[in-house]
Amino acid sequence: MHIAATYLKKRHIQLLLTLDKTRHLGQAALALHMSQPAASKALAQMESSLGYTLFQRSGTGMQPTELGEIVINYAKNQAGAAQRLALELDAIALQDQRLLNVGILPSATVHIAPQLISALVAAQPKLNIALHEGLLTSLIEQLENNELDCVIGRTSAHVDSSHLEALFLYEDPACVVCGSQQSLAPHASQFELGDLLHHWWVLPPKDSVLQEHIQMMFSRLELPLPQHHIQSNATLATVALLNQHPWVGVMPRMLAEHFVQQQALTIFPIDTHVNFGTIQVLTRKEKVKTPPLELALGLMRQLFSAY
To answer: What is the top-level taxon of the source organism (predicted)?
Structure first.
């Protein structure tokens, strides 16, 4: 490779391009905030290192030689490549500043996610938002690997919080529900929990954290678990079953209220004395968070502070 391909530095490229534009050493020096002797010395050093005369001097100015034209074209290509690289890097950085990857646990899908997304779109229409629903373990792993910016939902005490931080949103109380199309719904206000024990129930899976809370609910009211029940963690299937049969279910109140608005469920006015857990936002412990994440956290503080 000829030395011309490796020797030209940024200051050489700037001098060559400015000389090509002005064809006058004094004007080029002025444009580059250099003294004319310094510009003349830099050009002489460049010509000496390359082994060619690049400009013919005259009393009226300077004209590039044939070889000078070749070197100027090379300098233009180098300057253009540097500019394109800077633009591409800026575009990538800007894209990162406009991207928000949100991990959503099932407990946050119908209540938090729609409100958050609506608020984000209103506040920052150009923001690219990606929602990823999954289980806690998988989402936490993605968060730790920088694949997600945050994880929202009901979290477990078993989460390693040494490198994560949590923003508390609200406690999620348990409520007792039935299908709005079933015979129990019109008389929901007349029932106590004990009156419903002879019905079939849809309960959270055995050995789950939610099941522990359900057992606590019945224990506090000194009642046994319903004898007839099935186990389900499939929300839509649970809602469908409750509307097909005069059955009873237990679910987080925020989730139940969504289906009440859809006229799919009715909530019994029974105080369960039990919370299903804490709804919060998990993020990595970082000194500086991206602007989209800061925006999302601020909006969630506003949206859910009253719960």
So the answer is: Bacteria
Neighbours of 249 (CB within 10 A): 24
Mean pLDDT of 54-64: 86
Domain boundaries, the chain: 4-86, 97-170+278-304, 171-276
| Other C-beta atoms lying within 10 Å of the C-beta of residue 83 | 10
> pLDDT tens digits, residue range 223-260?
999 999 999 888 899 999 999 999 999 988 988 999 99
Task: Specify whether the CB–CB gap between 218 and 176 falls below 8 A.
Answer: no
Pairing of the two strands 150-154 and 275-284: antiparallel
pTM over 0.90: no
Taking alpha carbons only, the member of 266, 252, 129, 250 closest to residue 185 is: 266
The residues, ordered by sequence, that sit 6+ positions from 102 with a Cβ below 8 Å of its Cβ are 113, 116, 129, 130, 131, 132, 148, 149, 150, 151, 152, 296
- Coil, helix or strand for 253? helix
**């503080």: which residue's tokens?**
301
3 state DSSP class of 225: coil
In tens, the pLDDT along 105-136 reads 887 888 899 999 999 999 999 888 999 998 88
Alpha carbon separation from 178 to 193, 252, 260 (Å, rounded): 12, 13, 10
Amino acid letter, residue 179: G
At 67-107, the pLDDT tens digits run: 889 888 888 877 777 776 776 676 666 665 688 999 998 87
Place of tokens 């510009």: 39
Residue 175 pairs in a beta bridge with: 251
- What is the CATH topology of the domain spanning 97-170+278-304? D-Maltodextrin-Binding Protein; domain 2 (3.40.190)
Q: Exposure string (b/e) for 97-133, b if CB count within 10 Å is 16 or more? A: eeebbbbbbbbbbbbbbeebbebbeeebeebebeeee
Q: What CATH fold (topology level) applies to the domain 4-86?
A: Arc Repressor Mutant, subunit A (1.10.10)
**Coil, helix or strand at residue 147:** coil
